[in-house]
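DATA SHEET
Item: assembly model
Revision: 1
Owner: S.N.
Input lines:
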Amino acid sequence: MATEVTIIGAGLGGLALARVLHVHGIPSAVYEAESSPAARSQGGMLDIHDYNGQIALAAAGLTDEFRGLVLEGRQAMRVLAPDGTVLFDKVDDGTGGRPEVQRGELRRMLLDSLPAGTVRWGHKVTGARTLGDGRHEVTFADGGTVVTSLLVGADGAWSRIRPLLSAAEPEYSGRSVVETYLYDADTRHAAVAKTVGGGSMMAAKPGREIFAHREKGDTLHAYVGVVEPLEWFAGIDFTDAAAATERIAREFDGWAPELTALITDSDVAPVLRPLYALPAEHRWERVPGVTLLGDAAHLAVPNGEGANLAMLDGAELGQALAAHPGDVEAALTAYERAMFPRSAEAAAIGGGEDGEDPIQGLIAAVAQDGRPE
Ligand SMILES: Cc1cc2nc3c(=O)[nH]c(=O)nc-3n(C[C@H](O)[C@H](O)[C@H](O)COP(=O)(O)OP(=O)(O)OC[C@H]3O[C@@H](n4cnc5c(N)ncnc54)[C@H](O)[C@@H]3O)c2cc1C
C-alpha cells in the first residue's frame, strides 16, 4: 500500500490534493485547525479558470459536480469611473472561461468527494521538525504529534510547515481591503444593485478601489481597496462599525453615491483585511519528504488566481505522486519544477510596476480581453 500523505490544511488546495490522491488510490490524512466544516463562513465568490482551476477539478474527476455549482450570468463584468460613468460593460454570454461559484460550495464539494475521516478537524499545527531521514514530526496545539514520511503544507499564508523549507515570511503589500455585504440588494439596495449588474463591477483611481460582485441570490459583496500603511488603518477603530464606515467612506468623497453605497449601506460591520504577500519568486531547495502548495508556497496579493493556483498545485502534486510510485523525491521535484515558475508568473498579474496602481493594470487587462493575463 502507498505511503499515507500528511496534508496540513483543508483549504481548496489541500482538499484538491487529497481528492486527486484518492482518485489514484493513495491514502491521505488532512489535519485542519478549524473545528468543523462550518466553523468559519466561507463567503465570497471565485471565478474558476479554464487554464488552471478547471484543469484541477477535471483531474479530481469533479467537472460535472463543479458545473452544477456554477452561478449563471456571473461572468458579466463592468468597469466604472469613480463618477459612475460606465467605461466597460461585458455581458455574460455563457462562453466565458471563468465561471463563478460560491467558495463554500466548492469546498463542500471537495469535502464530500473524500472518504469519511480523511479530514481531521480541530487539529491546529503549532510546529514541525525534521527527524533527519526524510520524516517529519508535526505537533498540534493539544500536544499531540504525528510522524510522517511525506508532509505537505497546505496551511495558507501563515504556514507552520513553511519554515522547514524557507525563511521567507509574508510582508504587508501596502494595501488592504475592507469587506462589506449588502443583502436582498434588488429590493433593499436597488440603485447599487443596478450599478453592480449581474456579475462583477470595479471602479478605481490610484490608491482607492471598489470591487463588487453579485453572489448567490441577490447579495452584493464588496472589497473596498485602500493603499495605506498598516499604521493608517491602526488609527481606525473597526470595533466601532459606524465610525469605521464613515472613515473609509470619506476616502471616496466625490465618488458616485451608487458606488459609495457599497460602503455606507453595508448590512454587516466592515471587516478589514490587510493584504500580505511572499516574494514573487519564492522558492526553496529540495528538502526530503516535505513540500508546500497554494498560499503557503506563493501567497500573493489577490488577483483572482490564488484559489485556482492552490487547486492546480494540489492536483499536480497528486498526479506527480501517482506517476512516481515509490519515489517521493522524483515526484516532489517534478511538482516544484512546474509550480515555481507558474506561481511567479501569476504573482505578477495585477501586481503593478513602477508605482502603477495594481487595480489599474487589472482593469486595463480585463477591459482588453476579459482575461487578466
Ligand atoms: C480578499 C481576498 C479575495 C480573494 N479573491 C480570490 C478570487 O477571487 N479568486 C481566487 O482564485 N483567489 C482569491 N483569493 C486568494 C485565495 O483565497 C487563496 O489564494 C486561496 O484560498 C489559497 O488556498 P489554500 O488552500 O492555499 O489556503 P487557504 O484557503 O488559506 O487554506 C488553508 C487552510 O489551512 C488551515 N490552517 C491554517 N493554519 C493551520 C494550522 N496551523 N494548522 C492546521 N490548519 C491550518 C486553514 O484553517 C485553512 O482551512 C482571495 C484572497 C483574499 C484575501
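QC remark: The chain has two domains: 5-72+100-169+278-347, 171-277.
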